[in-house]
Amino acid sequence: MTMNTEDWKDAFPTQAPQDHLEKTWERRLFENEKTASTLGLPAPLKPQPLPIPEDPSHPAAQENQAAPAPEPAAPKKERTPSSFNIWNALFLLVFAVSSVCGVMLVLKPGMTCPAVKEESSKTALVTNLNKKGEAGIAWIKIRGVIAESNDSGPFSRNQGASAIAKNIRSAAADKNVKAIVLDINSPGGTVASVQNIYGELQKAKQQGKKIVALFRDVAASGGFYVAMAADKIVAEPGTITGSVGVIMQTSNLEGLFDKLGIKITPITSGKYKDMGSYSRPMTDAEKALLQDMVSETYSQFFAAVKAGRPNVKPADLTEYTDGRVFTGERAYKLGFIDKLGGEEEARLLAGELAGLKDPKILNQRSEGLREFFFSLGSGMDGRAAWAKQLESLTTPSVSYLWMN
Fold it and tell me: Does residue 221 carry a catalytic annotation?
């Protein structure tokens, strides 16, 4: 069978594959344009389209008529600051303000806020309980060993001798405070710290303040010394008091150092510069010098007791100031205290001396939350306690202290 050219075209069409390729290319181009417009990206370069035949029956022309119009590009959304960025800005602002304040405090350490300065000009003892400005008494506590405090932790409480002396000065400067009750529960302390508090009490008396000392469980040695500045003393019958005297202790760790192979060689400017050293025995000459110093400080103690307790018989004064301790009942019989009783008796006695019938305690307030935090701080301060113990072993000190 013979086929002409037209028959070959009908049997093997060549236009259909070309039409199929054009349709596929245009569809992919349209999809790319739509994707680019949605993402806000620049549209890809579109090549020059092939000429479409004008014949409506041509498949390319029909495809062009059937193709939908491209959708308009979606509007670009404006970005708003997120909450994360807002918190960052606030943090940076607070940090900047804190930094500026810190620099100002470093450059001008004397700067204080007006409100704080105004409050500090008043006594720290009188609280909001005394809004009407009524007269009353100040209650000042002395607890534990009387010495300067070296605690500097965030939860540490400043109970050193300087803090007690400051409270006494504040009470003496307050016109509403007519009397001071010195609440003592202490075995004593270092000589200088005890004498510091004693001196502040003497100044308070010169400003017209009446002073009553209250002995708790123990008021011995330095605790007894500071009470000699009081007008009256109250104690319980079973209170341990007395211990009038001075003690100085040195440590000799030479044997321990020998076992550990430690050798200490001091280089001094004089033969007595390392007197009391813990690395060697003390010589007789050094003992004599230290004994003279202890005797001198004892004379100061004895003079304070004699001036503060003028009604004690000279024989009893000599006998009971040899370092011994005795009960509150014995102290009452000897004249070292004026009344047996507790805090209520001390409060009423202070009011009687100041001319107040029912005296109010002006600085009394609840400190439950503060006590809780201070107890946590003391528990976390284990290393500091060990350091204090080591310091006490290696550093001699002269103390009005009852050692038990």
Answer: yes
Mark whether 98 is an active-site residue.
no
Where do we find the tokens 């005296």? 359
CATH architecture under which domain 133-365+394-401 falls: Alpha-Beta Complex (3.90)
Which of 201, 190, 183, 157 minimizes the C-alpha distance to 361? 183
Q: Which residues, in sequence order, are CB contacts of 131 under 8 Å at separation 6+?
A: none
Q: Angle 60-64-66 (CA atoms, 0-180°, nearest 5)?
A: 115
Cα dihedral sign, 218-224-230-231: positive
CB 186 within 8 A of CB 400: no
Catalytic one of 186, 193, 221, 399:
221
Distance CA 230, CA 209 (A): 10
Distance CA 22, CA 67 (A): 13
What lies within 8 Å, CB to CB, of 70 at 6+ separation is 30, 33, 34, 37
Show pLDDT as tens, one digit a residue, over the chain (404 residues): 555 555 545 555 555 555 555 566 567 666 666 555 555 545 555 555 555 555 555 555 555 555 455 555 555 545 555 555 777 777 778 777 777 666 555 555 444 444 433 333 333 444 434 555 789 999 999 999 999 876 555 444 556 899 999 999 999 999 999 999 999 999 999 999 999 999 999 999 999 999 999 999 999 999 999 999 999 999 999 999 999 999 998 888 888 888 999 888 889 999 999 998 888 899 999 999 999 999 999 999 999 999 999 999 999 999 999 999 999 999 999 999 999 999 999 999 999 999 999 999 998 654 554 544 444 444 444 455 545 544 554 556 778 888 75
Q: Which residues of 277-296 are buried (b: 16+ CB within 10 A; e: fewer)?
A: bbbeeeeeebeeebeeebee
Listed residue (338, 289, 356, 386) closest to 138, CA to CA: 356
C-alpha to C-alpha distance for 265 and 263, rounded to whole angstroms: 7
Token pair recorded at residue 169: 């000065």
Domain ranges of the chain: 133-365+394-401
DSSP label at 337? -
Marked catalytic residue, from 117, 271, 273, 313: 273
Q: Which residues contact 97 (CB under 8 A, 6 or more apart)?
A: none
Structure pTM?
0.64
Q: Are strands 240-242 and 210-220 parallel, antiparallel or unpaired?
A: parallel
